[in-house]
Amino acid sequence: MNKTTKYTEKEAELLDKAHKKETITPIVYEGPAVKEIYMREVLSHITPTTRLLDLCCGAGNFLQSLSGTIPHGVTAGIDISSAMVQRARKNTYSLINTIIVQGNITHLPFSSSAFNIVTCRMGPDVITEVYRVLKPEGWFIHMGAGYHYNPEIEAVFSERYTFNPYESLDESTWKETILKDAVKAGFHAAISDFTRFVYYTPEGLTKYLEMIPVVKEFESKKDQPYIKEIAQKYRTSKGIKITRQYFILKAKKSF
């Protein structure tokens, strides 16, 4: 998975529904509630006049969740996928002072020092460009995938598994590398990591792989033998156990 992925209309619809909990994917979570921790971090820096940019905004669900928290500021979202941008515009249509643009986050179409906060979840490394668009004393708050993310799925799908953000790094240094990149860009930064487990039914795991393009050319019917293999290898009393490690990077622009 790469959040510069150009999602199809079907993938955009499924992902939007998943965020809205409209799809039936029976799963059990175990471990820290990382999304809630991340949201608290973002909210702790928001004021009524904040200018906030959400990178890889997808269907705009995160901006929806901020509704009412920035009554006199601006919220903006950017995504490379036209299908996602269409959904985001629909979802945020009623929000005040919210704009959604289509574009590549490696070259943000915004002026320097335009935002107080930049947020991102599961996006690529664009730390230098983020630094440029942040105001002095502004914050970049990023929730990303850690070193161990879907290792059970990767073990079975092997070379078809496309989301290996740290495969070239050592397990003992991946966090330090992220932190060094932030400091090199000019930030004062801190990083925390969290590991949680997701327990799927075979149907739920299939639905996840349909929604999130971590496996190249995944087809639910054709790839059922792989789903069965994952189920056989990693089944527990709670369901098929999948490991998800995350990090939260908090980086402040010093000047």
Describe the fold and architecture:
It is a single chain. The chain is α/β, with parallel strands linked by helices and 255 residues long. The chain has a single domain (9-253), classed as Vaccinia Virus protein VP39 (Rossmann fold), CATH 3.40.50. 33% of the residues lie in helices and 29% in strands. It has 9 helices and 9 strands. It has helices at 9-19, 34-43, 61-65, 82-91, 127-133, 151-157, 174-185, 202-211, 224-234; strands spanning 27-30, 51-55, 74-79, 98-102, 115-121, 134-149, 187-200, 235-236, 239-253. Strands 1, 2, 3, 4, 5, 6, 7, 8 and 9 form a 9-stranded mixed sheet that branches. Helix 3 links the parallel strand 2 (51-55) and strand 3 (74-79). It is globular and about 50 Å long.
Describe the structure using short key phrases.
single chain, 255 residues, alpha/beta, Rossmann fold, 9-stranded mixed β-sheet, 9 helices, 33% helix, globular
- Rg calculated over all Cα atoms: 18 Å
**Rounded mean pLDDT score:** 90
Write down the CATH topology: Rossmann fold
Ends: how far apart? 33 Å
Unreliable residue runs: none
CATH architecture: 3-Layer(aba) Sandwich
Main sheet makeup: 9 strands, mixed
Helix content: 25-40%
CATH class: Alpha Beta
Number of helices: 9
Shape: globular
Work out the strand percent. 25-35%
Instruction: Please report the total strand number as a whole number.
Output: 9
**Total discrete domains:** 1
CATH superfamily: Vaccinia Virus protein VP39
What is the structural class?
alpha/beta
Q: What series of H and E elements makes up the topology?
A: HEHEHEHEEHEHHEHHEE
